[in-house]
Predict the 3D structure of the following.
Amino acid sequence: MLDPSLDRILIVDDEPEIGRVLKLFLDDEGYSSSLVTSGSEAMDMLEKSKDYTVVLLDIKMPGLDGVTVLKRLKEIGSDVAVIMMSGHGSEEMAVQCMRDGAEDYISKPFVFEDMLQRIERARTNRSERIEKRRLQQEKDDFILMLSHDMKNPLTAVIGSIDIIREGCLGPINEEQKDYLHSAIDSCREVVTMIDNLLDIRKFEAGKFQMAINTFNAQELIGKIAEQFTRPARHDGIELIVDIEPGTSEIAIDKSALTRVIGNLLGNSLKFTHEGGTITVSCRCIPGDRITELKIPSYLSIPPDFQKNNYFIRLSVHDTGNGIEPDELECIFDRFTQLTRKTGREQGGAGLGLAYCKLVINSFHGLIWAESEADQWSEFIILLPCCYFSSSDSI
């Protein structure tokens, strides 16, 4: 049992007699308690002092009622445990407060032993919650530190290998050059995984900075796809770039979209057999025809999404082993890895697709996957057009 003298309790009740009785009882039990008779007084005290661990909060009060106080406490990120106090007929409201973040509720008139048990439970839950948050923060800090520390030596390794590959330290043959290319590609894949992890953390913390500008979609996507010609050829895979000509502008962060396409092409290279084909396609479609794309029902469609006049449909299609139907909805979740096998794929942290989803969502777009087992997979991105000038086609 936690020592009651270590915590302070704030009683908020517009009926002074009830509040005073509660205060006397809690003080006798060893707690340090304070009493206020309005929601505004309670907010003033809780904003000035972080010493309170539990608030006994009456729901029905004139002016700033208990429900509003609860919401404001959650808005400012207070970790105080709130126990709602309700009179007869307020139980339904109290249950709603529980859904909104209250720790517990108790009905008037009070049974003091029951009150003590609820306070003790609220204090214990609060302590466990704070400890869990502390451990999570330590884990996050460790991951960020480790990720940063790993990138520096990897960058040095890539630079050193590149010097050898360029023949700066002496001549090398084509076979040696291919091995060095593979080593650089592997190092860069690890760097990409680290970048995905760091940026996902930034997204979740609301600290990811986007430099949104308009770009010609066809031109940009074509240039990105061409960067994967050599890795595809090295693996004996044909890379086809099918870009519809025209002027279709999209508002995106160039660096982020480049990594999205890189993640998708990297996955396709892993899961496509030698002799297979990967096709990157890009075309503009009118807004009244997006229903033909069969957008999955589980996707969360942005507000006013379908009011856009034109969209860019970008896709990466491969002739790999496909994706199991029950994986299609969850493959964009963090740390989810596909089970399709080619016998030569490299391991991964299951972060690339999670990063893709976060980025595309930030562009007010959609991303999903379609597949036929043992035959093909296709990752489809739908982005609103800022400007379009070309023939309409799908």
Notes: The two ends are 67 Å apart (CA to CA). DSSP finds ten helices and 13 strands in the chain. The first strand starts at residue 8 and ends at 12.
